[in-house]
Each structure stands twice: as structure tokens, then as C-alpha cells.
Amino acid sequence: MGIFGFFSKEKKETLDKGLSKTKESFFGKMARALAGKTKVDDEVLDNLEEVLITSDVGVETTLKIIERIEERVAKDKYMNTKELNSILREEIGSLLMENNSGDVDDFEAPITKKPYVILVVGVNGVGKTTTIGKLAYQYKKAGKKVYLGAADTFRAAAVEQLEIWGERVGVPVVKQKMGADPASVAYDTLSSAVANNADVVIIDTAGRLHNKIGLMNELTKIKNVMKKVVEDAPSEVLLVLDGSTGQNAFEQAKQFTKATEVTAMAVTKLDGTAKGGVVIGISDQFKIPVKYIGLGEGMEDLQVFRRAEFVDSLFGSEA
What span, in angstroms and rounded, lies between the C-alpha atoms of 119 and 273? Predict the structure, then answer.
């Protein structure tokens, strides 16, 4: 069994605490929206729509949820507001189940061929480098040999931060001088990793969105160069998004999914925000698995995204 083969009490407590601001905000808005109401009618549904949108679930996903609830109201003929919480929980749970390819059991990379190469993308400031450090920690804890590549060569702070994480975790970091070709760094990292029989390689990239064509070309070049060392690299392209930015995270996801083939997402900084609803909308709109969620600064505070536990923490364990 991997290190995340079960959901421990400690992890559940971290998740509950991390989503507490979102939960308090969401159900505070719900209580105000339903005040004085006993039956789910058009006004209640309009109010619920506003609650979901202002909770950063996103317009399109909100309309989808409302449409499903409307269908259930029409079918049941009568639904009281006490039932609405349970119905909403079910529909959000169903939506998450539909839009992810399956929960990740743990941090053990599905290694069929070594090394497993993760290319990490995202704008500066979203917690990209921190997420890489936490991933490296979890993989090493799972018994894997990990190499990190500092391919964000345009910011000295990015390289330094990755080196600090490498030292903390105890994994090697491959770097070059400032301004070096990022593809060259990726090539060197993979070459070293292969030579030393590494299990997992995680490559940091520059987080610039001002020039989408430049970003696309740079990421394509990195991928092409990596394939010279590892034929099927990258194994995964992980997009890191800052959950506390709400709708801005949607826009970032839109731009990066246009610029490169994103295969998984990590949503960070959920512990400091009431905007946790963004996870629901991002999962629904982009049909790309949300693989990890960040719930704090500690190395243990990056969790695999488990949909059932997420809904339990948001709504409470009792429906």
C-alpha cells in the first residue's frame, strides 16, 4: 500500500480546517438566501444561483447545477429547503465524479518506465515551486529517488527557492546560470536522472503569460528536448493554480490549456481563502483531473484530491 492508501484522521482534519473558510462563507450565504423560505421555488433557485457564483464555482458550472436541481424539483413536484442542502451536496458530488478520471490513491507515481517526468507549469506566485518541493518530499517519503530541474532561468528567486526545497527534502537540484536556455536545463536534468537511475523527475518552468505564443514555443521546445533523453517525456504536465484568486484561476487555466497539453492540476492556498468553490468549477469546465490541493505551508499540507472527502468537508460528514 502507498503512503496515501487510506485517508488518515490527521489528513481529514487538515482538509476540514483548510476548507473551513469556504464552508463558513458558503453556508452563511445559503442561510441568508433561504431565510424565511420553506419551499424550493424560482426565487430560492435564483438565490442559490447567486450563492454559487459568488462562491467562485463559475457561471457555467453553476447553471449546470441549477438545471439539475430544477429537474429534481419538477420530478418531485415539491421540495422543501431542508432537503436542498442534501440535494446540492449530491449534485456537486456527482459533478466531481463525472469530471475527473479517478482519484489518485497516493503520491506513488505510476511508474511503468523510469523516470516518471513531471513538467510543472503556472504563473509566478501561485505556489508552483512550493508545490514541487512538497511533491518531491512526498515521493521521497514513498521511497522514490527524485531529481528536480530549475528550468525557470529568468528569476533568480525561483532557482534559489527550488534549491532551498532541494536541501530541505534532500534531493538533487540541477541548474544552470541565470538566463540559460530552459530546454538545456531540462535536458541536463533528465540526463543526470537517467544516469543515476532516478524514479521521478520534476521540472520547474517560467511562469509568464504576457506572451502566449512565446510560452507555447518555450514549453514545446522543452518537451522536444526532453524526448531526446526520455522518449515519452513528459509523463505528466501539471498546472498549478492559486485557489485564492477565484475566477482569475479560471483564466489562467484557460490560457495554459491553450498553450500546452495540461494533463493534471494542483489547486493551492485553499486554507487561506473562502474561494474553495473554484475547485468544483475548474474540475467541471476543463475536464482535467484536479490531482492535488494545497492546504497550508507545511511539507505534509499538499494532499491528493479525493472527491468524496472534499464534499464531506465542504458539507459536513452528515448529509
Answer: 27
